[in-house]
Design a protein that fits this description.
The complex is a heterodimer of chains A (88) and B (367). Chain A has 88 residues and is α+β, with helices and mostly antiparallel strands. Chain A has 2 helices and 5 strands; from the N terminus they run ββααβββ. With 367 residues, chain B is an all-beta fold. Chain B has one domain: Methylamine Dehydrogenase, Chain H, CATH 2.130.10.10. In chain B, strand 18 and strand 19 form a beta hairpin. Classes of the chains: A alpha+beta (88), B mainly beta (367). Chains A and B meet through loops of A and loops of B.
């Protein structure tokens, strides 16, 4: 499984734009990312575990609309963490 | 833009909707500017640490808005970088920090200590310049918290005062909740709102629920305080207790910032607006009002300020003073102008225009 890292979060990954992981759900993926790149999990979900507003996670091309941590992942999936269209 | 800041220069740190700027001048006549820093991000607060005159701290979203809050730190001449950690509530609280509204340096004897005031309302302390943070639980999970309601500006903790005589004595202000005081370093807190009006509640003088807009120490150095509130301007004496309303003589009871003279006791500056329903200067004339007797009388200053026809305001962190002699007073508008007075508020000059809307103005001396 491949996780694509958005430019704003590459300061956590030493500039890496993608990370290869073997996990079966998003919660485990976030824990694995955090273990390798401390602080990155807090940028996707808040301290209560909720997805931050205007942060989208896609598996392949499908937006995860259900509870983020419980969403399942399969080998070969590509996970995209992206900011949604927002701002001012 | 000039980035080199001469030692001894007055520095005015300006946080805006789109980045932070450092205005600096050795004589307060000709100003240079460094920035924008944290370009494109909303810089809610930015300070030059008075304890070393070199370190800049700022609060802005990480990268851009969606990624959550961040504390930025760096030397004054450099682009500040986000610290790895930022203030967070404890696990299981079901609360999450959405913004940091205020950064306050700790006492001079603890140069690595800084405080952060957050939204939803909470106070955090770092003892290592922002690398790790402590959640001040007895305030953040106060028994009344479940009843706290956000005002129009959100449920934000925006004022953090550390007593220079006693670092364990702090006072904080929370919008639509009120002022809290601790004398034991944050283990226990008392509500300090007696005498303060809350016109938007059935009980006009409740124990808490008042909408404090900004708190500041009186330079008397004895613990006296000034407060600008949603419903009036107030002063509290050295022994604590009830606040005295000192709105009489001002054009309205509504404003956001309050800045105090660093040496002359009972002296403060406010910028009253029409009211809660119309947050612009009365009659389209920007004005700063000054008292030298803890609010018994106020004097209006408009020389060099825009109007008539100037329909703008100054936000809660938008006014500050420096420590030069005579002191400088600075006011940043929500339409992007920065005004400065070199004569203690008697006359003003615009030192920058066409900035993004200004959220915060603070001052320091570069070392």
């Amino acid at each position: 499984m491949l996780v694509r890292i958005p430019p704003a979060l590459r300061s956590y990954t030493d500039g890496q734009d993608e990370v290869v992981l073997e996990t079966t759900d998003v919660a485990a993926m976030l824990r694995a990312l955090e273990a390798s790149f401390p602080g990155i999990r807090d940028r996707v979900v808040d301290e209560a575990g909720r997805r931050r507003p205007y942060v989208n996670v896609f598996v392949n091309e499908e937006l995860i609309r259900a509870s983020l941590p419980e969403s399942k992942l399969n080998p070969g999936d590509v996970v995209h963490i992206l900011p949604s269209v927002a701002g001012g | 833009m000039a980035r080199s800041i001469k030692k001894g220069s007055v520095v005015v740190a300006v946080g805006t909707k789109k980045g932070g700027f450092l205005f600096h001048s050795p004589d307060r006549k000709k100003w240079s500017v460094a920035g924008p820093f944290m370009e494109g991000g909303a810089v809610y607060h930015m300070i030059l640490d008075p304890r070393d005159g070199r370190t800049v701290y700022a609060s802005a979203p990480m990268g851009s808005e969606p990624w959550g809050p961040a504390i930025y730190r760096g030397r004054a001449e450099e682009e500040p970088k986000a610290t790895q950690a930022f203030p967070k509530f404890k696990e299981g609280s079901d609360l999450s920090v959405s913004r940091i509204w205020h950064i306050e340096p700790g006492p001079s004897e603890a140069p690595d200590t800084i405080y952060a005031g957050a939204e939803p309302a909470a106070l955090f302390r770092s003892d290592d310049r922002g690398d790790t943070w402590h959640d001040l639980g007895s305030l953040n999970y106060h028994p009344t918290r479940k009843e706290w309601q956000p005002g129009g500006g959100g449920l934000c903790l925006h004022s953090v005062l550390v007593d220079p005589r006693n670092a364990r004595h702090l006072i904080v202000g929370i919008s639509a909740v009120g002022a809290f005081e601790t004398r034991d370093g944050g283990r226990s807190w008392t509500m300090e709102n007696r005498g303060v009006r809350a016109e938007f509640l059935p009980n006009k003088y409740p124990e808490w629920g008042q909408c404090v807009h900004k708190l500041a120490w009186d330079a008397s150095g004895d613990g006296s305080l000034f407060q600008q509130n949603h419903c009036g301007t107030y002063h509290r004496g050295p022994d604590g207790g009830e606040w005295t309303e000192v709105t009489k003589g001002l054009p309205s009871d509504f404003g956001f910032p309050i800045a105090v003279h660093p040496r002359q006791k009972h002296t403060a500056f406010v910028a009253p607006l029409v009211g809660a329903g119309n947050r612009v200067f009365p009659k389209g004339q920007m004005a700063v009002w000054k008292t030298t007797n803890r609010g018994k009388a106020w004097r209006r200053s408009t020389k060099g300020l825009p109007g008539p026809g100037a329909y703008l305001g100054v936000l809660r962190e938008g006014m500050a003073v420096d420590e030069a002699d005579p002191i400088g007073v600075y006011a940043g508008t929500n339409t992007g102008q920065l005004f400065a007075s070199r004569d203690e508020g008697e006359s003003w000059k615009m030192i920058s225009d066409f900035l993004p809307p200004i959220f915060s103005v603070t001052t320091g001396i570069a070392q």
